[in-house]
Design goal:
The chain has 211 residues and is α+β, with helices and mostly antiparallel strands. Strand 2 and strand 3 form a beta hairpin. It is elongated and about 70 Å long.
């Protein structure tokens, strides 16, 4: 157990102090990788440069609040900060696992592993006869039409895609996707999971996530 400054509290006689992995090399490497000076990193983490220097040289052990603050500063998890390696994800996604999810008539089947930089889906798009809401967000999108026909609007251009057709575009381009045939359409859809202040911006609609 430690004080707010990371100095171990003395425990009862015979009780060993809590041991943490040596985070000093990881702290120094992460700061340098982010291109931060000691002063800049310390300011972001709410520490003094002298104290951060002691953490980086192993002369002090960080408390849990410090670990959380440093993890946020460097954009990593506490586990990564402690040098723990995440278990390798299963690269195989079996049919029917997980179950399909429905939202506003759109049916989503996960086609890729969770937690990746890209999300892959098999999507059933219902026919409504109405234009879908326009969407703008960071990242890229790729789609491939399996069945039916799809109407894809990119900016002022409108494209009708048949089975076997595909499209790949930057999703900062205002876009909307709709089925062009009464029976609906099915497509494979891949998009990057980029986060920013502009993410999930929808024009003329709510912030419901949808391709």
């Amino acid at each position: 157990m430690t004080t707010a400054e990371g100095v171990p509290f003395p425990g009862p006689p015979g009780e060993a102090a809590d041991a943490l992995p040596d985070v000093a090399p990881q702290l120094r490497a992460l700061r340098r990788r982010r291109g931060l000076t000691l002063e800049a990193a310390a300011q972001r983490a709410g520490l003094s440069p002298a104290h951060l220097s002691r953490l980086e040289t192993g002369h002090r052990q960080p408390s849990l609040p410090m670990l959380l603050g440093l993890a946020r500063t460097y954009g990593v998890t506490v586990s990564e900060l402690l040098g723990e390696v995440a278990p390798e994800r299963d690269p195989i996604v079996r049919a029917g696992r997980p179950e399909a999810v429905e939202a506003d008539g759109w049916i989503y089947h996960q086609a890729g592993a969770a937690g990746r930089a890209m999300q892959a889906l098999r999507v059933r798009v219902p026919y409504t006869g109405q234009p879908d809401r326009v969407r703008v967000h960071p990242g890229e999108e790729w789609l491939y039409v399996l069945t039916g026909r799809v109407r894809l609007a990119l900016g002022d251009a409108v494209h009708v895609l048949d089975p076997g057709d595909s499209a790949h575009f930057g999703s900062l381009t205002p876009h909307r996707i709709a089925a062009a045939t009464p029976g609906g359409a099915e497509l494979l859809f891949v998009h990057t999971l980029m986060q920013s202040a502009a993410a999930d911006l929808c024009l003329g609609g709510d912030h419901t996530r949808r391709p």
